[in-house]
Specification:
- 29% of the residues lie in helices and 0% in strands.
- It starts with 14 loop residues before the first helix and ends in a 46-residue tail after the last helix.
- It has a single domain, classed as Transferase(Phosphotransferase) domain 1 (Transferase(Phosphotransferase), domain 1, Orthogonal Bundle), CATH 1.10.510.
- It has 122 residues and is mainly alpha-helical.
- The chain is globular and about 40 Å long.
Length: 122
């Protein structure tokens, strides 16, 4: 059941699909992210819980992400699911189902559009 939850139209998973799921969450329509192939044959409350847990697992800051033991409790024991925080790279303007926009910056740039990311373990 879990593997069939995400709407196939949102795959392969990308920033745009994350943005769409976040927008649906913000609008209280998270179940619309469930794959239509299921034809509504799923429990909406369970699907919403699992998708909300998924949003928690991709929080921008690792400190905000739940540990695996907490995730297991959220899934198996009806442990309380905290509200995910909006990622800083999604501005309110991009979460209203509008086309993806380039973030505006108030800092001066050399114009080379190069970014550097550091991957660190939790």
């Amino acid at each position: 059941m879990y593997s069939a939850l995400v709407n196939a139209h949102l795959l392969p998973f990308s920033f745009c699909s994350f943005e769409k799921v976040w927008s649906l969450y913000g609008n209280g329509r998270l179940c619309e992210a469930v794959d239509p192939v299921l034809e509504g044959n799923f429990q909406e409350d369970e699907a919403s819980r699992l998708l909300q847990i998924g949003l928690l697992c991709v929080q921008a800051s690792p400190e905000l992400r739940p540990s695996m033991s907490i995730i297991v409790k959220m899934i198996n024991d009806n442990h309380e699911i905290p509200q995910p925080t909006q990622p800083p790279f999604l501005s309110p303007a991009t979460t209203d189902s509008s086309p993806l926009r380039q973030p505006e910056s108030s800092t001066r740039s050399s114009g080379n559009n190069m970014t550097q990311s550091w991957i660190e373990p939790r």
